[in-house]
Specification:
Oligomer: single chain
Strand order of the largest sheet: 4-9-8-6
Radius of gyration: 20 Å
Order of helices and strands: EEHEHEEHEEEE
Structural class: alpha+beta
Number of helices: 3
Number of domains: 2
Helix content: 25-40%
CATH topology of the largest domain: Ribosomal Protein L9, domain 2
Distance between the termini: 56 Å
Largest sheet: 4 strands, mixed
Length: about 150
């Protein structure tokens, strides 16, 4: 089934593209959430008319994400976790932990934008990518320390 993407969708495509997806994915996920429209001739024509507005909105989102990325540049977080006798963590550092530490520093980021690449399960410094926008990413350093 062909759809027009109204927003960037990870692993599917970018805003404005006409992509081929499975019918269930389009019917159950993309269309109900407003992420895509069926690629009918009428919808393609409507999308072409609205394309300029969408591009302006996209630029505003990118600029806002760039401003947040500037705040995050060079930021280092300390997260304290319980550790065992062999200096291994009980559990792992999650995106929620990183989000809470960022909010304590005065920066608000959605936890779903934080990419931990399999989680943080050891003590020490770990680089963490934050995808603020499809074109803007920031990287912070998370230092995991033992709880005292």
């Amino acid at each position: 089934m062909q759809v027009i993407l109204m927003r960037d969708v990870r692993h599917t495509g970018r805003r404005g593209e006409i992509v081929e997806v499975k019918p269930g994915y389009a019917r159950n996920y993309l269309v109900p959430r407003g992420l895509a429209l069926k690629a009918t001739p009428g919808n393609i024509k409507v999308f072409e008319q609205q394309k300029h507005k969408i591009e302006i909105h996209h630029e505003k989102e990118r600029d806002a994400a760039a401003a947040v990325a500037a705040e995050l540049a060079g930021l280092s977080l300390e997260i304290r976790k319980r550790v065992g006798e062999t200096e291994t963590l009980y559990g792992s550092v999650t995106a929620t932990d990183v989000t809470e530490a960022l909010e304590a520093k005065g920066v608000s980021v959605d936890r779903r934008r934080i990419d931990l690449e399999g989680g943080i399960k050891t003590l020490g410094e770990h680089p963490v990518r934050i995808e603020l926008h499809s074109e803007v990413t920031a990287e912070i350093i998370v230092q995991v320390l033992p709880e005292e």
